[in-house]
Amino acid sequence: MSQTATVKNSRYSTKELVLTALMAVMIAVCSWISIPAAVPFTLQTFGIACAVLILGGRNGCLAMVVYLLLGAVGLPVFAGFKSGIGVLFGSTGGYLLGYLLLTLIYWASEKIPVKKPAARIAVSAAALVVGLAVCFAFGTAWFMVVYTRNTGAIDLATALKWCVTPFVPFDLLKIVFALIISGRVKKLAGK
Known about the structure:
Oligomer: single chain
Number of helices: 9
CATH class: Mainly Alpha
CATH architecture: Orthogonal Bundle
Order of helices and strands: HHEEHHHHHHH
Strand content: under 5%
Largest sheet: 2 strands, antiparallel
Distance between the termini: 32 Å
Radius of gyration: 18 Å
Low-confidence stretches: none
Helix content: over 70%
Number of domains: 1
């Protein structure tokens, strides 16, 4: 069998695999960048949004899976240079896994038929916002269960005050910037 036939039968091209790996690294770098504020936040949401917007849902989702697996096996790719399966199963691990849900929601949104580029941007933005809401909901439920088991009972209002409310405006801003930057990157790449 020739080399060309093998590549054509592959589900992913070499270019797709390289770009997916690069986006997984970009997500890691974005998770290390901490912006000081009343509640410090990272650029992780920005990296994930860029991954799905530039690569598409399938490869963006794969980049997120690669990122999570790298962290799970011990590479310090999570916020604060943390790593390990303990982080994924810790109190904030639900937010990390919730990002995977965000990428799946974006991937599903690509099936919505739209003809105009402006409509595609609107669908993409809506998918990212809905995905972020699902990420916050999943992560908060996870946080409450783990926190209650390890420390004691916590009510929903307190969990939202600690884990969601301070981050919503910044995460929405990161999505806006990701939409702008990914559009420019796609133009430069000729997509």
